[in-house]
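Translate sequence into structure tokens.
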Amino acid sequence: MSKALTGTDFQFKGQKGVYHGKVRDVYNIDDDLMVMVATDRISAFDVILPKGIPFKGQVLNQIAAGFLDKTADICPNWKLATPDPMVTVGLKCEGFRVEMIIRGYLTGSAWRDYKNGCRMLCGNVLPEGMKENQKFPEPIITPTTKADEGHDENISKEEIIAQGLVSKEDYEVMEKYTRALFQRGTEIAAQKGLILVDTKYEFGKRDGKVYLIDEIHTPDSSRYFYAEGYQEKFEKGEPQKQLSKEFVRQWLIEHNFMNQPGQVMPEITDEYADSVSERYIELYEHITGSKFEKAQAQDLAARIEKNVTDWLATR
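Result follows.
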């Protein structure tokens, strides 16, 4: 089994602090730049699983970097460079405390809520009689609060503005960017025989301007269906063949874990971790149309430290 990077503890020149997220370790350089390391940690149901997934960080980082480049004409984004396969360096922005989730289809948590009688989701009225995995007439935006720990909470545009989480002006910019980014992602996915089902975007502000930050259109932040067979499976009520992290959530559900009180995390074997790695690589190759080239995986921390240090020295 290949090595997985599950934690970092770097000391870069100019480092002012580090934030260890569920999946990413983000280093603040001189309050001006962010060094974002995509680790091999994996989370589901707002908990980090006890074993890393080999090459997952590289997959996420390279997909996100590619999509940031392919959407830079839509809105400004934070990316400056990718000095290592697992690292993106970019502009430090003040992140908004909400995540912009946009859904083209009724699936995942939205379907679970709908099945339980929910017909109002983050201010969106949901039609009666919808089925699992059905396409919405128009994509809906279902924002959540961004929690450092625990569960993110659904929230409406009106509540966000009323609570002062985001100004009306900034929210409307984020809303416009979210719809345009999702449209672009949908078009790119369709060219590869995939359906971009739903995704999330994060935004921040720098010098009075709204920037797209963090990752974009990765299997951690997005859900993809295979276009081939979608309609037939939908009509039969069968599960869709999909490329996303949902298969990990389903595996946990099958093993009686949804991070509820009293539930115990199932064992993550090396074999299961490798199978998840293969699924991530499969999505990379589908969504990019390129073969995944595994980076050298011995002493990942030393490789990353050298590559980032060398890049920072050129600034």
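Note: The radius of gyration is 19 Å.
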